[in-house]
Model the fold of this input.
Amino acid sequence: MSDIVKKFSLINTLEGYSYLILLFIAMPLKYIMGFAIAVKIAGMIHGTLFIALVILMYLSYKEVKWEFKENIVFFIASLIPFGTFFTKKRIQSYF
Done:
């Protein structure tokens, strides 16, 4: 249906993976092995993807006219590890 929603779905997935990489790879590398640069790199990538996620979430909301509570669900899911993967089918229902 909408290219914006498809982009939102893609960024939702990528942001989910970047969050897991940050939490389960970069942070242990920093705190166990002393490689602080891992968190800086993964954190920058994750932060950029998170900003893109929020922008595309808003644009998708405006274009498709889903209920505002959907945005709340998508946003909260983005803050929980593995949460974005549970919202993937819900987002794809708006294609």
